Amino acid sequence: MQQILTLTPEQAYHITEQYRVVKRSIDARQRQLKVNVTLLLDENGHPITKGAPLPLYTPPVWQDVHNAPRHVRIIGAGPAGLFAALTLIEHGVKPIIYERGREVSERKKDIAQLNRNVSLDAESNYCFGEGGAGTFSDGKLFSRSKKRGNMQRVMELFHYFGAPDTVLYETHAHIGSDKLPTIIRAMRECIIEHGGEVHFGHQVGENELRQWLGEGPVILAIGHSAHDTYRMLANIGVALQTKGFAMGVRAEHPQALINRLMYHLDKGERFKVRGERGLIDLIGNASYSLVTQVQGRGVYSFCMCPGGHMVPATSSAEACVINGMSASHRNSPYANSGIVVQINPEDLPAIYAEAGDDPLAGLRAQEYVERLAYEHGGAPAIAPAQRLEDFVRGKRSTDLPDCSYLPGVRSSALHEWLPPFIANRLRQGFCDFDRKYPGFLTNDAIILATESRSSSAVRIPRDSDTLRSLSHPNLYPCGEGAGYAGGITSSALDGINAAMKIAES
Ligand SMILES: Cc1cc2nc3c(=O)[nH]c(=O)nc-3n(C[C@H](O)[C@H](O)[C@H](O)COP(=O)(O)OP(=O)(O)OC[C@H]3O[C@@H](n4cnc5c(N)ncnc54)[C@H](O)[C@@H]3O)c2cc1C
Q1: Chain-centre distance for alpha carbon 436
Q2: How far apart are the first and last CA of the chain?
Q3: Are residues 92 and 205 in the same domain?
Q4: Do 399 and 437 have their domain in common?
Q5: Quick one: 425 and 300 in the same domain?
Q6: Is there an atom of ligand 1 within 6 Å of 83 CB?
Q7: Pair (106, 124) in one structural domain
Q8: What's the pLDDT score for residue 42?
Q9: Are residues 439 and 471 in the same domain?
Q10: Number of domains within the chain
Q11: How confident is the model at residue 463 (pLDDT cuts 50, 70, 90)?
């Protein structure tokens, strides 16, 4: 049960200190700033205080699967693969995970090298390694959709392995990239302790997979960045389809500016509650969610990170890919977000004439744009960048503002070389956003190319009931790379669902 209250910021502050708050949203449309607070109620309808026991949930019961009669191979140790493994253990089946990347503490060192622009390890980076793309992600755990299955179970498992209490009840829970590695490590330790196996540095290849598919169930949880693995699947004859996705840039503004725009802080005296800083301490740095339509395609913000950092999320040399994350406190002076253009399969020739028309066409288009960005940036991870207003007005930036991207940026005329299909829609999209939030379009903001991995460009079709691949009955494609999930929670849930199907069969 929940109760929604509309409060002043001061009242919201006191309530938030006292009770478990499910959701907080800011309403800055009226003359006075309002905070809508949703409280969690107990069975008697009373708000649950912060110190009170958490709502009941079923703790996992791990079985000893060291000598279990059944085992399942899992390719990929991202959220989908890890949650599949944990579910199999709960059901007495032994999971054997194969992960091409390294374990999380080694991976941290490889990522540090990339952030210093020293070197890219193609097997250990922001995409590959223990925990997959989820480990050094922002850790926004958004989806509460009940359609896909038991999302609360995903949150409970995150909590069991060390995520804060808030993941159990907040609608927009956030873990933060500083906390995720410890949680992921705890998952692996649990899997091994109860008899599962985890093999790092093991890239599953074609011959091996062919053999396994003849032996028993294989959960395929490869994420959407392993383009070589998609090609391997194509060689084996696994059914694949092109899927719509999105590409664009990552935009970063000073957080103070986003706070002013989203909370309307510049509109007079009415927000002088504890001063501007106090207000932000109270309600947190502002985020945004923007969407518009330009020439028949959606242009929208994606994975907005208030108080965050932009990061090099490439896994291959000669590709520049940008993503965003924030630590648990979300307190950097920058606000970044992907701003992307919807791309349908029929749009691919407009992006890359040689994309082809087979199921891997979307990958080629992605790779083409990522390579362009690399050529205009620099090895291994310098990003091409432009001031936002210059991009929209078609001007080269003579200098660039400070930004959070550690490997370094190089001034580049993105409007000249990004495919016009993307660039023109982005330019119009930024103008639309500025109409809604005047000041959003500013040269104090910077854009980096390219934000190209917001979702998978390939789908691995499966039977909707059995979750088996349409071409290979022993193959269970799941998670983001299969094209059935997007984000940490939905990928984790998809892994759980695949494991349940196998355990029950
Ligand atoms: C910087 C960043 C920030 C993000 N922020 C958020 C966020 O705030 N909220 C959110 O919901 N999502 C976020 N995401 C997206 C989220 O991380 C992914 O949606 C999620 O991790 C997908 O889970 P998955 O298990 O399907 O695949 P992945 O996490 O991609 O894991 C796949 C794993 O498979 C391995 N693999 C691939 N091929 C092979 C092979 N042949 N052999 C062996 N192993 C292989 C890879 O090494 C990888 O570890 C972010 C992503 C990034 C990069």
Answers
A1: 26
A2: 36
A3: yes
A4: yes
A5: yes
A6: no
A7: yes
A8: 85
A9: no
A10: 3
A11: very high
Report residue 138 as tokens.
């922002």
Task: Please work out whether the CB of residue 492 comes within 6 Å of at least one atom of ligand 1.
Answer: no
Ligand 1 close to Cβ of residue 488 (< 6 A): yes
- Token output for 21: 């708050």
CA 238/CA 227 separation, integer angstroms: 14
Nearest atom (ligand 1) to Cα of 140: 8
Looking at 428, 451, 474, which one is the last position of a domain?
451
Write the DSSP string, 337-390.
EEEEEEE-GGGHHHH-TT--SSTTHHHHHHHHHHHHHHHHSBTTTBEEEEEHHH
Helices 227-236, 361-376: inter-axial angle, 10-degree rounding: 150
Distances (CA, A) of 361 to 49, 172, 234, 356: 53, 35, 12, 5
Pocket test for ligand 1, best of 145, 303, 452 (most atoms within 8 A of CB): 303
Tens of pLDDT along 243-292? 999 999 999 999 999 998 988 776 654 455 566 777 787 778 989 999 99
191 lines ligand 1 (CB under 6 A): no
Determine whether the shortest distance from the Cβ of 74 to ligand 1 is under 6 A.
no
Mind listing the pLDDT tens digit for each residue in 129-176?
999 998 998 888 875 566 667 888 899 999 999 998 888 877 788 898
DSSP class of 256: H
Q: Mean pLDDT in the chain?
A: 93
List the beta strands (DSSP E) in 195-307. 197-199, 218-220, 241-242, 245-254, 291-294, 297-305
> Cα(472)–Cα(234) distance, rounded to whole angstroms?
12
Question: 338 with 191, same domain?
Answer: no
| Ligand 1 near 101 CB (within 6 A) | yes
Structural domain containing residue 22? 2-40
Alpha carbon 435 to its chain's center: 28
Nearest Cα neighbor of 372 from 324, 302, 321, 337 is: 321
323 lines ligand 1 (CB under 6 A): yes
- What's the one-letter identity of residue 482? A
Residue from 504, 501, 503, 494 nearest 221 by CA: 494
Strand partners, 342: 246
Token output for 269: 């005296």
Q: How far apart are CA 412 and CA 400, in angstroms?
A: 10
Q: Output the domain CATH number for residue 142.
A: 3.50.50.60
- Ligand 1 centroid–CA 324 distance in Å is 13
Q: Which pair of structure tokens corresponds to residue 448?
A: 């980096």
Rounded Cα distance, 341 and 294, in Å: 9
Q: Cα torsion for 432, 437, 443, 446, to the nearest 10°?
A: -80
Please give the order of strands across the beta sheet that includes 34-40: 2-7, 34-40, 21-27
Is 0.85 topped by the overall pTM? yes
